[in-house]
Structure formats: structure tokens, C-alpha cells
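Page 37, continued from 36.
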């Protein structure tokens, strides 16, 4: 079991792009599977495959290239540099990523209006992301080695995917719509469990 970390580190050094992309995709897709479980619905593996497709074809690759561009444009870990990277990420990268997710999912689901989810949920999702991603990226840009930044973003995307996939399927893009649902589901499961 202890041999997996050195192997993963070697893979990240030798093949950083595919290693980061696959880690990101696996974690993000797992977030979709978990949100289905938390909602108490039957597992929809077709939906999870669609999420994985959007993540592999766009999100993970975009993040890898985007984080590399930010590092080349703003090299270093000085506080001003890190804050500039976070600002660029939230002003440029985040809107692209949110838009690509909603449009990509709508295309793969065969919706007539592929922009409907984007029009209805973009601002709420973007604003919700501003409560999460700046803190993630602050940590990413200041503490995480460059070769692991996409994988770290993928790890944090696991939590974001739970929210984002819920919003895409039945929410309005706000934490307010997602959190009470999960809280209610969890509370009823706890109340319904027999005591021993």
C-alpha cells in the first residue's frame, strides 16, 4: 500500500499532464456519484459518465493549462503575486469553468437549449464559488508545488462537484438550495435509524 505514493509522484514528474488530468477527473466524478448517494436517488452512472466526459475533455485540461499559464505569467509565491493569481483565477478562469460545465452537460444530455442552465444558474453558481474557490486557490498558489496544483484543485473539486452536480440536476446554483436538502436528508436518516 505504501508503494502507491512514490509511483504517483514518479508519474506526476514524468507525465504531469495526464497524471493531473486523470486525478482531477476521478475526484470530480466521484463527487457527482457521492451527491447522488447523498440525495438518496438511485445511482445514475450515465450522468456520472457525462460529468467525467466534461471534466476529462475540458475542465481538467483547462485547469492544467490555466494554472501553468498563471504560474508563467505571475511566477512565485510572494503574497502580492499569490493574490494576483487568485484574482485572475476568479475573474477569468472561474467564469469559463462554470460556463463550460453547464453548457457541456446540456450538450451531453441532448437538451434543446444548451444555454438554459447557464442562463438560469451561472450567476448563483459563480457567486457561490466565490465563497469557496478563492480560499482553495490561495492555498494552492502559496503552498502546493506547481506539478501538483491541478491534482490539488481536483481534490478540492470533489467537494465542489457535490454542490455543482446537485445544482445542475435540481438546484438553482446557490448553497442555500443545496445545503438544506443535504441537511434534511442526513437528519431524517439519523432520526430513522433504530437505537441499540
Amino acid at each position: 500500500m505504501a508503494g502507491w505514493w512514490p509511483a504517483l509522484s514518479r508519474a506526476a514528474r514524468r507525465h504531469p499532464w495526464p497524471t493531473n488530468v486523470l486525478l482531477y477527473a476521478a475526484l470530480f466524478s466521484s463527487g457527482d456519484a457521492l451527491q447522488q448517494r447523498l440525495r438518496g436517488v438511485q445511482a445514475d452512472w450515465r450522468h456520472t459518465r457525462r460529468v467525467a466526459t466534461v471534466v476529462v475533455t475540458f475542465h481538467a485540461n483547462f485547469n492544467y493549462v490555466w494554472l501553468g499559464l498563471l504560474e508563467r505569467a505571475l511566477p512565485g509565491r510572494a503574497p502580492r503575486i499569490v493574490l494576483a493569481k487568485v484574482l485572475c483565477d476568479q475573474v477569468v478562469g472561474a467564469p469559463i469553468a462554470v460556463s463550460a460545465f453547464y453548457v457541456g452537460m446540456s450538450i451531453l444530455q441532448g437538451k434543446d437549449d444548451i444555454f438554459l442552465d447557464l442562463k438560469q444558474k451561472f450567476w448563483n453558481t459563480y457567486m457561490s464559488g466565490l465563497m469557496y474557490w478563492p480560499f482553495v486557490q490561495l492555498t494552492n498558489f502559496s503552498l502546493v508545488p506547481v506539478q501538483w496544483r491541478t491534482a490539488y484543485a481536483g481534490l478540492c473539486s470533489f467537494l465542489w462537484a457535490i454542490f455543482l452536480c446537485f445544482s445542475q440536476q435540481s438546484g438553482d446554483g446557490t448553497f442555500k438550495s443545496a445545503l438544506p436538502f443535504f441537511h434534511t436528508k442526513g437528519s431524517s436518516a439519523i432520526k430513522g435509524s433504530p437505537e441499540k
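The chain has one domain: 16-36+43-167. Flag for discussion at group meeting. The CA atoms of residues 140 and 149 lie 6 Å apart.
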